[in-house]
Specification:
Keywords: Cell membrane, Membrane, Transmembrane, Transmembrane helix. This is Major facilitator transporter. One of its GO terms (molecular function) is transmembrane transporter activity. InterPro entries: MFS (IPR011701), MFS_dom (IPR020846), MFS_trans_sf (IPR036259). This protein is mostly helical. The chain is built from 17 helices and no strands.
Length: 396
């Protein structure tokens, strides 16, 4: 893996922006789940709070089409950063009035806005990454970028538990400050690529036609969807396990998430070194992840949970580097935001339904049984690789 000093200065700024953004989003995600569950004692409503941030991602393909044809990507990035720094102030107003209804409405609304603006930024980052990185740096760049993102997320999860101890109001005030800081690197990024002048409809058609001709991209989206179901459900289930199952304070949820993130960081580092067939590597990752998640249902201590949490993180971290690298190789600069948006629409958007699904599974079965349900689903999904022969044979 290349040393980070060898990367373009603009890529470093992009990583810094992504890291601060990820820190803020991770903190916000855990905090809203904890607060809603604390105030309402309803896992479904907490799952809704978790999932609503991903609702705008259902429209990511359309956002990507607009970003690909936009000449002022930097202006869009700045506007998105300002909006997500300002809108969560409504939550503070809800706490000021001490109104639970206003707090819940503002949390859900802010979650939607954060999801929308983050979607815009993800499409812009994807386009800029393709332009800035040299081809020989695709794998190492993906590895470093994901490592920084996961470290930032781990910090967000860890510190959110600490911040919650000082009060809900201060937690949201901190998140607002983080999003404001994330704006700074954007002002120093300059790019040279200029998109073709085409209509929005033509931009959409080009993206659809590209995916129709490259079946491996669609197959990759389906695999990504499965991995994102894990992300979407694991949040609400882990928090419910800590708060309701083990009757422990928020700091223990932070410890579990931080351990999971450490695993992702390690996996991202290892992913930069992994070589072989995409299919063989993926089957091993999916089966291992399913077994590890299933094993959590039989554990009786929060400290035992840390082992499978880290191992699952390692497996998913490796997978993400491999899939990101593959996409950088396949997709051209002028289509990157559209294809990245399509990934969000068809895979990352799964976290909206899976966040709610996670809460529903807990309500219908139990917290422990929910781990078995998710684990078995992941293992069964490996059957798909018998049909994804083209993607299976590709090498990384």
């Amino acid at each position: 893996m290349s040393d980070i000093s060898s990367f373009d200065r603009r890529f470093k700024l992009l990583i810094f922006n992504a890291g601060l953004s990820r820190f803020g989003l991770a903190s916000f995600n855990l905090i809203i789940i904890w607060i809603i569950l604390f105030e309402t004692k309803n896992a479904f409503l907490a799952g809704l709070g978790d999932g609503i941030m991903s609702l705008p991602l259902f429209f990511s393909f359309f956002v990507g089409a607009l970003v690909d044809r936009a000449k002022g990507k930097k202006a869009i990035a700045i506007a998105a950063g300002v909006l997500r720094s300002v809108f969560p102030v409504t939550i503070l107003y809800g706490f000021y009035l001490n109104s639970l209804i206003l707090i819940l409405i503002s949390i859900y609304a802010s979650g939607f806005i954060l999801g929308l603006t983050s979607d815009m930024m993800n499409s812009i980052r994807a386009s800029w990454t393709k332009e800035i990185l040299k081809e020989e740096h695709y794998k190492s760049g993906s590895s470093v970028s994901l490592m920084v993102s996961y470290i930032a997320a781990g910090g967000g999860y860890a510190l959110s538990g600490v911040i919650l101890a000082f009060g809900f109001y201060h937690a949201f005030a901190t998140i607002i400050a983080v999003f404001a800081l994330a704006l700074i690197p954007i002002f120093f990024i300059r790019t040279n690529f200029r998109p073709r002048d085409v209509s929005a409809m033509t931009s959409l058609k080009e993206g659809i036609e590209f995916m129709r001709k490259h079946r491996e991209i669609v197959q990759l989206m389906i695999i990504a969807l499965i991995l994102n179901v894990v992300f979407g459900t694991i949040g609400i289930i882990f928090i419910s396990l800590v708060q309701i199952g083990f009757h422990l304070p928020a700091i223990f949820a932070s410890i579990i998430f931080s351990t999971f993130i450490i695993g992702l960081v390690i996996g991202s580092f290892l992913g930069g070194k992994v070589k072989g067939k995409i299919g063989s590597i993926s089957v091993i990752i999916l089966v291992s992840t399913g077994l590890l998640i299933t094993s959590i249902s039989f554990l009786t201590s929060v400290f035992y949970v840390l082992v499978p949490a880290m191992l699952v993180g390692i497996a998913i971290g490796i997978a993400n580097v491999i899939y990101n690298t593959l996409m950088l190789h396949i997709v051209s600069q002028d289509l990157m935001a559209r294809i990245s948006g399509a990934f969000s629409t068809f895979s990352v958007a799964a976290t909206f339904s899976s966040g709610i699904l996670g809460g529903a599974i807990i309500e219908v079965t139990s917290i422990n049984h929910s781990f078995i349900v998710i684990g078995v689903f992941i293992i069964v999904s490996t059957v798909l690789w018998f049909f994804f022969k083209q993607l299976y044979e590709m090498r990384i």
